[in-house]
Every structure is written in C-alpha cells, then in structure tokens.
Amino acid sequence: MRKLLSVLLLCCLMTSILGMPIVSAEEPYHITMAYVGNEQPDMDKVVVAINELTLAELNMTFDVIQLGWGEYAQRQQLMLTGNDDLDIFSVFFQHAIGYINNGYLVNEADYIYEYGKGIIDFMGEDVATGGAVNGFIYGTPANKESASLSGIVMRKDVVDKYDIDVTSIQTYEDLTPVFEKIHAGEPNMILLAGTNLVNQVESWDLLFDGFGVLSDGGQSTTVVNRYETDEYVRRVSLIREWYEAGYIMLDAATTTESSSNLVKAGNTFAYLSPIKPGFLIQEEKVTGYELVTAYIENANYLYSSSVNFFNWAIAANSKDPAKAMQFLNFAYTNSDFMNLINWGIEGEHYVFVDESKTIIDFPEGVDAMSARYNLNIGWQLPNQFIAHVWNGNPPDIWAQYQAFNDSATKSKAFGFIYDSSSVMDELVALNNVADQYLNALATGSVDPVTVLPQLNAALYAAGLQKVIDEKQAQLDAWLATR
Q: Which residue from 317, 326, 420, 321 is spatially nearest to 83, judged by alpha carbons?
C-alpha cells in the first residue's frame, strides 16, 4: 500500500511540475530496505520524499520495512524463508554464518567492484570488503566509530573534591589508590559500577565470539583461551580485591541497571566504557553530572568484529542484486538520502541551528517525545559520516570519528571472519558455561583462585579446544593468502 501511495504521489507531483507524464527508458526498479528501529509516525511522508530522490537519481522507487528491536531476528528469518520482497537489510554479525549457510544472502563479491565503487572509495577496500567468510562478502559495514579505546568515566565533582590527578590513571592498578582515597571519605558510595569490568578495556581480538582469542590486541596470531591469559588473571584478581574492599556494589553481577543510570541516581562515582569522540556530551546528558575520563591501558585496536558488528546485506530474495548493489552504493554516498532516512524532512522534522548548515535540532515546539520523525540510528545506517550533525555534538564529529578509527592499530586478523558452522554445538555449550561464571568473575563477586579453574575446566569440557583448533586452522589458512 505504501509503495503504491508513494509512486502515485510522486507521479502526481512530477506531472504538476513538468506538465507531462514521467517518461523513462525502463521501468523503475523497486527497492525494499529493512532496518531495526523504532516506529516513526511520519514514515510514509518521508518515504515519499525519498522516492522523489531515488527516482531522479536511480530510476528506483523505495520502501522500508521497520523491524522492532524485540522482533527483528524472528521477522527477518520469516521474510528470508518466505521469499518476501526484500533487497537490502542490516545483518548483525551473530546471524551472518547461519544466513550464509542457509542461502539467504547474495555474495556481494560478485557486485561490489562493479556497482559499489563509491563504497570502496569512501571506506577503503579492506573495510568495505572485510565482511567476508571464506571469500563470501555477506555485507558492507555501517560506517561508524569502530576503534576499541576504553577507560574510566568519573564524576568531576568527586574528582575535584578529593584532588584526583586524572592524568595519573593509565592502568587498572592506578585506580586502586583513587578508590582508597574516595572510599575513606565516602564509605557508602559505589565507586565502580558495571558488569563488564574485565573485558570493557578490550586487549584481545575476540575473533567474534570470545572463545579462542588473539592476545595483545591481535598482534599475536596464536589463538588462546582468554581465561588462561596472564592479563585476564591479573584483572580478575584485582577486581576481586576491589570488591572485598567495598568499592563495587554487592549485587554487581546480577544488576540490570545501566551504569550511567546508577551514576544519575547520585551514589556512584565511576564506570568503565568505550570512549569515543563526543562521548562525554552524550553521557553528561544521561547522568546529569559533569564527567571526566581517563583511558585505561591505552588499548586502541581495530578488530573485524567491531567494524562488522552490523553490515548491509543483499537478500537472496532480491529480484535484481545488481540494482540492490547500486542502491547500496547510492546510500553510502548520497547525503540527501542519509539525512532523509535518519532525520526526516528539513523544516518539518529538523532545522539548522548554525549558519554553516551543519548542526540540526528539532523545530521550535518539538522535542524527542513529540517528534513525528527522528529515527536517529546513524550508527546502523550505511554512512552517517555524510549526514548532518545533531545539536550538542561538535561540528566536526564525523572527522573526529574517522581520525579515531584511523589512529587504531589493526589486529593482524583484521578482515578475517571464521566459519563457525562446524562448531555450533560447542558454541551453544560454551555460551551456557559463560552465562554461569563470567559475570560473577568480572565483578569480583567470587574468588578467582577457586572459580577461575572451575570455569576453564567447564569450558574445555564444553568443547573449547575444538573451537580454538578450528579458529587457528582457518586463521592460518587466511594469513597464508595475505
């Protein structure tokens, strides 16, 4: 219905402007795109505007299928198995292998070099074609900040009160005297929130699932058990000391409250987090506090798993994969499309607030609650780096993101994605083991001297060595082709 409405409205518009019907050498191709996001009341209106653009630029009409966060995996599966109209959609990495093996995807390697040159030019060939398993390119990655630099986020008022030298904080161990000093004056304050206290500062290339990793940010090419590395043992031992000293909340392993919300509540000092350009602006809005940060371990690496967290794939359902690739190339390189799909229509859904027409905000009288269109999922869409910047971010935020990515050291396995199909049963069992042990270890809630050997024994019993061996064999074969 939306497709028919869009085309009819656009035909009427063009007829009234030109005084004659639209004439084309060929019938417009219809593109159907699916993404994961929240429902927008004015989606039909925005789709009409996008159709005007795509007809003029590509001789294509356009429609979207919006998938809710709680339903997207099931609905995607039904669309792909039911041969529904679908050309392009976002694939989260955990589904990629299954989709490839079930024949749900088109191999973009057959099309990207001819029809996706703009993507390659913008992102670089290694990134644009890196979403590949055994040479099968399942999708092109969304252009976002992908480096792994992480650290501690702290309330500035507490830092100032206790005269904390933020520049002195460079390792996990450097946090101990900071916590000691604040705890002496604020014995009831939670000093460190979160459940991912060990792995948030990512010093391993997880090779996607974390069962068999590369140490030193992927500078080693030997696949090992992360939970037996000196780095992991060092961290869980220290975090256990913090827990016993009262720095970490007692129910840290089971809480479902976000760290930023715990800070907002007023009795939490800090949490660990990835720290990207513009991060503090975002977090200060959420927490209501002025914040300061310090990088921990300075582990700034770039992994295939972070770049290819969600990619844009061409569905096997597509009636013309070459046209779908042409549309993807358009989506990655056309700022008008990116602004329409993410922000809506200028003057109605957003307005410029600076003379250079770079920064946008809601029109007067509109906010996030009353907005009829504000998709705001640039990190999932093809290329947010060519779109307008939302108010509150620096005007050069996209350049900062690009510099952030460029500054990272690439893992030696960058571009490698292993085929896990032969170890799927083991991965299910390994995830069950991880669910049983990891949160407790990563929050200091249990003694690693006792529990860490139990974890490793359970992992090997569940098939960890088979997964490690499979990853190593595939990685060695891949490295031999570099």
A: 317
